[in-house]
Amino acid sequence: MYNKSMATVTFDTLKFVECLKEHDFTEEQAKGLSEAFKEAQNSSIQDLATKGDVRELKHEMKELETSLKLEMTNTKADILKWIAGMLVAQAAIVATLVKLL
């Protein structure tokens, strides 16, 4: 479970609106654009990963790696057991066939 600490970036909407009005935007256009920009900025900040998120993900990846290594070792042991069993069975079959001939 991720614990995100909220990162904040200050955005001076009044200064932004005034700057737009100086460049021939109407008050309504400037306020609308300012609000849209502020919403877009806030939504993108929520999607950012923190250092804690990265640390936690690294820890989870290490646990997954350890788990996979253990599973691969167990699978390898199982395969070797089957091969050894098949070799013993093959030797028994060959010995039986030699006796019958």
Strand content: under 5%
- How many DSSP-defined strands? 0
From N to C, what is the helix and strand string?
Answer: HHH
Taking the alpha carbons of the first and last residues, their distance comes to 69 Å
What about the largest sheet? none
- List unreliable stretches of 5+ residues: none
Radius of gyration: 34 Å
- Helix fraction, binned, reads over 70%
Give the integer mean of the pLDDT values.
86
Overall geometry comes to rod-shaped
Question: What class do helices, strands and sheet pairing give?
Answer: mainly alpha
Question: Total number of helical segments?
Answer: 3
Description:
- It is a single chain.
- The protein is mostly helical and 101 residues long.
- Helix 1 crosses helix 2.
- The mean pLDDT is 86.
- The protein has three helices and no strands.
Short note summarizing the structure:
The protein has helices at 13-22, 27-46, 51-100. By secondary structure, it is mainly α.
Record the SSE blueprint.
Layout (H helix, E strand, L loop, with lengths): L12 H10 L4 H20 L4 H50 L1
Helix pairs in contact: 1-2
State the main characteristics.
0% strand, mainly alpha
